[in-house]
Amino acid sequence: MCDNGRLDNERLENGSPIRAALKGALAISPLTLAVVPWGILAGSFAIDAGLTPLQSQAMSALVFAGAAQLVALGMIKAGIGLASILITTLLITSRHLLYGMAMRPQVSPLPLKWRLTLGFLLTDELFAIANLGKQRSLDPWFAFGGGFSFYLGWNLATAMGITLGHKIENLDALGLDFAIAATFIAIVVPAVKRPSILVCVLVAMVASVVCALMELQAGLLIASLTGMACGQLYAKLSGEPWRQA
């Protein structure tokens, strides 16, 4: 009850829930626009993989994980078995466990309905705007506004791909998949504010390339853990003070 009362007081200080949600939607809007080509490609690719329009849209509505969807669709098209698809998508989305651990101090005081809602809406993009660190509290309406607007943007882009994808010849040759890299660059670059974070990013980048060349399915997880370990090691060896950006 005390936690809920504290959260209510914080929301009153920060403005109405609608205003907080709009701020969240505005904060994530550049990333929402950047992901539109990615969503169009995912919708078109789902139809190309043999899914019906309803199944294709349901995949975006229920799975809501761009990278995992594209990889899973490629495996479906290649006729790979369900077990391999599940294991691969689990490895790809395992980074969300790290996001959840990082945001736990902010999210744990929230009621269960908020934790479940924000857990479903949690993406790389939402983490980028909502992870405020231990020194600041999380406004759930701000996070909801950002996450839900991004969810709508992704599903609308997917619907565009489903509807228009077959009408555009050689859609996969237009370079829309670059939106994936562009989105993650937009997320990562603003976060590089300390030398240890730069070390983490560079090591993870090199490790991901090496894992891709070696065709390791767990490459994303390996690169992430290696980058974080090296960044943490650098911070300890260099005596870099921990501080909030």
UniProtKB/TrEMBL annotation:
<feature type="transmembrane region" description="Helical">
    <location>
        <begin position="171"/>
        <end position="189"/>
    </location>
</feature>
<feature type="transmembrane region" description="Helical">
    <location>
        <begin position="195"/>
        <end position="214"/>
    </location>
</feature>
<protein>
    <submittedName>
        <fullName>Branched-chain amino acid ABC transporter permease</fullName>
    </submittedName>
</protein>
<keyword id="KW-1133">Transmembrane helix</keyword>
<dbReference type="GO" id="GO:1903785">
    <property type="term" value="P:L-valine transmembrane transport"/>
</dbReference>
<dbReference type="InterPro" id="IPR011606">
    <property type="entry name" value="Brnchd-chn_aa_trnsp_permease"/>
</dbReference>
<feature type="transmembrane region" description="Helical">
    <location>
        <begin position="67"/>
        <end position="92"/>
    </location>
</feature>
<dbReference type="GO" id="GO:0005886">
    <property type="term" value="C:plasma membrane"/>
</dbReference>
<dbReference type="Pfam" id="PF03591">
    <property type="entry name" value="AzlC"/>
</dbReference>
<keyword id="KW-1003">Cell membrane</keyword>
<keyword id="KW-0813">Transport</keyword>
<feature type="transmembrane region" description="Helical">
    <location>
        <begin position="142"/>
        <end position="164"/>
    </location>
</feature>
<feature type="transmembrane region" description="Helical">
    <location>
        <begin position="21"/>
        <end position="47"/>
    </location>
</feature>
<keyword id="KW-0812">Transmembrane</keyword>
<comment type="similarity">
    <text>Belongs to the AzlC family.</text>
</comment>
<keyword id="KW-0472">Membrane</keyword>
